[in-house]
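Friendly challenge for the regulars: who can give me the structure tokens for this chain first? No prize, just bragging rights.
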Amino acid sequence: MSEAARKDFHTKAGEKLTPDSSKSTLDKTKESITGAADKTAREVQPDSEKTTAQSLGDKVGRTKDNSAHGSTHESVGDKVKGALGLGKH
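First reply, four minutes later:
Bragging rights claimed.
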């Protein structure tokens, strides 16, 4: 399993617990970029290739994203694959 683009749970928790008002612009930008990379990695790698904890965490993250942003019944990974021409044929 490739963990290079993934954030661990401690990092995510620390980012959530630190108020934005105490973060620098650089910190906020870094969190945004690494968060996007983490979400992309979450969708590209199949759950069957992840640890149980990572798979569960990713499923919770997807559910949260769908409820916050509305569900199109298409994952970010499906959208990325479609944009790259690797989607369903």
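The radius of gyration is 14 Å. Residues 25-44 form the longest helix (20 residues). Your move, everyone else.
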